[in-house]
């Protein structure tokens, strides 16, 4: 599967080496395990004098947005990379901007944030892009999945998307409304437990009640899900988000946010 897409990545000079891309492709196609793929796609990085995983992170971001059905597998692969031994340089674990190469996914959060901001800005500049709302929803789903499994904590990004979606100036603009509401809904569909536990670290005792903003967000989603001028597809996502929110609120065992 995805042969042409992965070949296009191999032809892109801003992507990792073909053997690293092939390792990711083989994993996505269930030919190898996440652990084997983690070793194979990082082998060059582990041997570099100054390990730099940024091209690999770029590949993962592209896979998540362009091939959204693979997102859970990409999250699993990143979790496997976090378990790899960090490269040792000069007797110490190599760090990039203070972060360990693999166990802390050095520069991944910063690179993802740059990718997030760039995608958001480009899509907002081209509101007529038919794939715009879908792409933005996909990257939000990916960030929520990463947070849920605590590969990286992107709850700040989630709040940004949710508050954008419920901002009056966007709600009064049909295109912007679709753009932001679908993305915000994905934050709850894939990450309601983490958002319930705002203010808590993963693994901490779950909150007994919701973070104050949760109540405001839920009310806003309910209003938007009943509007006649909201597209049916967006309404369906909002209703799924509300179901996820209600499930966490009503079932204490679903409030537990444990480490990946």
From TrEMBL:
<protein>
    <submittedName>
        <fullName>Uncharacterized protein</fullName>
    </submittedName>
</protein>
<dbReference type="InterPro" id="IPR053204">
    <property type="entry name" value="Oxopyrrolidines_Biosynth-assoc"/>
</dbReference>
<dbReference type="Pfam" id="PF12311">
    <property type="entry name" value="DUF3632"/>
</dbReference>
<dbReference type="InterPro" id="IPR022085">
    <property type="entry name" value="OpdG"/>
</dbReference>
